[in-house]
Amino acid sequence: MEDAFRSPLRRTIEAIVFASDEPVTASALAKLHAHVFGDPASKEDVESEVATLNREYQDAGRAFRIRSWAEGYRMATVQELAPVLHAHFQRTDSKRLSRSLMETLAIIAYRQPVTKPEVDHVRGVNSDYALRKLLDADFVTILGRSDAVGRPLVYGTTDAFLERFGIRALDDLPKPREIEELLNDPAFNTERAALLSADGLADTSEQAPRPGGMPPFAVADGIVSESDDA
Amino acid sequence: MEDAFRSPLRRTIEAIVFASDEPVTASALAKLHAHVFGDPASKEDVESEVATLNREYQDAGRAFRIRSWAEGYRMATVQELAPVLHAHFQRTDSKRLSRSLMETLAIIAYRQPVTKPEVDHVRGVNSDYALRKLLDADFVTILGRSDAVGRPLVYGTTDAFLERFGIRALDDLPKPREIEELLNDPAFNTERAALLSADGLADTSEQAPRPGGMPPFAVADGIVSESDDA
Amino acid sequence: MYRVRLDQFEGPLDLLLFFIRRDELDVFDIPIAQITDEYLSYVSVLEQVDLDAAADFIYMASILISIKAKMLLPRPDLDEDGHEIDPRRELVDRLLAYMRYKEAALHLEVLHEDRRRQYVRSTAERDRFEIESVEYRVSLFDLVKVLKDVLSETPEPARHEVDRYEYSVEEQRAHLLAAVTSGLRSFREIARGGSPGTATSKAFVIVTFLALLDLVQQQQLRVRLGMSPEDFDVEMVRAGEAGSPLPLRDDPDE
Fold first, then answer.
1. φ and ψ at A90, to 5 degrees?
2. Phi and psi, residue C249, nearest 5°
3. Are A160 and A67 in contact (CB under 8 A)?
């Protein structure tokens, strides 16, 4: 086994990332190391030590890894242990984001900086409620004002959003497919089915289960028949 | 190297103790393991796995150990790294504004020119300390004297404030009307609030509840670096 | 009117996409007349439940009607090259753009799910060493929020005028939960008040329905479709099941 004590930088990184409640950037770690040990370190040094740490964790079967989220490092448990953790912390899935919040968030994430009227137009509905919830959750923030008429506020996503979605940087967001691509996809109909219906979602394994939600049509069915009797 | 994957109990212990925000007892861990894996484990099994984990940490030069307190197990950094941790967290903590400072700053920003008695009245507490801090930080300045009885000093925000909060001009602050729209939907009556509170959007499982009802907010990067020299 | 925003309503574009998918329509050749009629019948129902959301739907209804009218014009508008402008064009573009973001939302959701499987040290901050006061990081929005809190604490009598139904969502939640303790129940049955002959009202149904949505969202209840086009079944989500299957299922086998 390598003598890890020989690398104070590695221990510094491990200690800080372990003890932090937010992502720590490589440059902050490099600066800290230089400050405490009087020994200059580069961002690349930090990156390479993080890689070494993760290799050590992997080899030793550690329950956690150092992840790169929101342009910083964060220690988190490995995915395959989720069942044990879910069981212990009794996490239920009731805290998932609703579809309308997720939709609003997607529009803001991809179109930022974006104004509320723009979001409303894309969704076809008033997004006041969703926007407020996203602001409250600190996934979205006000970036400033647009120069457009009325100088509306413009919105964008936060670092907390990146962190809570496990995204390294905004550039890493998966690109939405172009419309042509969507339409030319032979799976378009299945895709559409998956997007739009409850039954389609149930068996698409690569898609996350949808947050508890009722599609509008189900609502309509229930009420139509009822209000007829009423 | 020992094959740690062979011991699900060890990984369970490591994952739970790592992620837990309170000490976890050996018997809770044994029960959890039995529950998830259908494989009974005793308190002694847990104790011996914890000892193994700590040996592994020691050998690998890890920055943390599992400590055994009366109430249970906790993971914590090793003593000798305290100076590094102190150095790091002192730096970051000093970059945060406390809630009382934020509150005071908000009132001054929106009500300026404003006197200290007015600020005190709105906040319901004495704002001496907060005001002094804000003056020190150059977020707030003395604009002059009021004509009111006693000719109290009047305060307002500085250009440094605008710059640090990424606001171009005072007009860019959200208007009270916009704040109302954002935060205070008039239709949001109590019933509705009660109905909707159930769908707590935030995945709160990883956030400790924050006193005072303020969600955690990320500082704009600008603020962090700027307040260094404040 | 009891007002509540039904967060699960996805909005008019979603509804249109649903019609298109269900009838396997060509997005570029939408039968506007047919879709408009269906759309309007939906909106008339929606108005009874959720006036807030209905406004969005009514606006789209007016767009549909105006497209329908333009389609009937003998001489359609021409673009600068002299080609006929399809009155549906703008709507189609919006539908397609919306589809893209819906797909993007699903991708985000996958990321969120994966991230939720990875636990961080929840109160790392507290473990470190004593930090005297809880402090917050801030953005411009925080200022606004704080201000709003402070201003709302400055006394000013608030007046709410709400016409109350004789049923509360709270009561109806209890009613629903009691109704399904013994197993799967039909919504119609529950909404009739449980026993035949019991007088019921629209208010009763609507409030029960709102309570149902609420419980579905909380994953206490699950709704099953497919028994009959005029009804759906409601059942309790047992402890431990929560979150595993979809709360809403269309299960044709049953």
1. 50, 45
2. -130, 145
3. no
Percent above pLDDT 70 for chain B: 67
Tell me how close the Cα of C119 comes to any Cα of chain B, in angstroms.
6
Nearest to A16 among B4, B88, B174 (CB): B88
- The per-type count for chain B, helices as H runs and strands as E runs, is 11, 5
Among the listed residues A127, A118, A136, the one whose alpha carbon sits nearest the alpha carbon of residue A100: A127
Most C-contacting residue of B85, B206, B207, B219 (CB-CB within 10 A), to test interface: B206
Please judge whether A61 and B4 are an interchain contact, meaning their C-beta atoms are less than 8 angstroms apart: yes
Residue B89: count other Cβ atoms within 10 Å of its Cβ: 17
Residue B61 DSSP SS3 = coil
Q: What is the pLDDT of residue B152?
A: 87
- Whole-number pLDDT of residue A97: 76
| Residue closest to B202 by CA, chosen among A139, C146, C124 | A139
Whether the full predicted model's pTM is greater than 0.80, yes or no, is no
Closest CB to C121 among B19, B103, B191: B19
The separation between CA B40 and the C-alpha centre of its own chain, rounded to angstroms, equals 39
- Within a 10 A sphere around the Cβ of B147, how many other Cβ atoms? 8
Residue identified by tokens 């039904």 is C6
Contact C98, C13 (CB under 8 A): yes
Residues 151-180 of A with CB under 8 A from C: 158, 164-167, 174, 176-179
Cβ–Cβ < 8 Å for A98, C8: yes
Task: Say what the ipTM of the complex is.
Answer: 0.65
A87 and chain C: CB distance < 8 Å anywhere?
no
Separation in Å, CA A62 to CA B81, B215, C189:
21, 32, 54
With contact defined as beta carbons under 8 Å apart, do A74 and C225 qualify?
no
Q: Do A32 and B87 touch (CB under 8 A)?
A: yes
Higher pLDDT, C194 or B84: B84
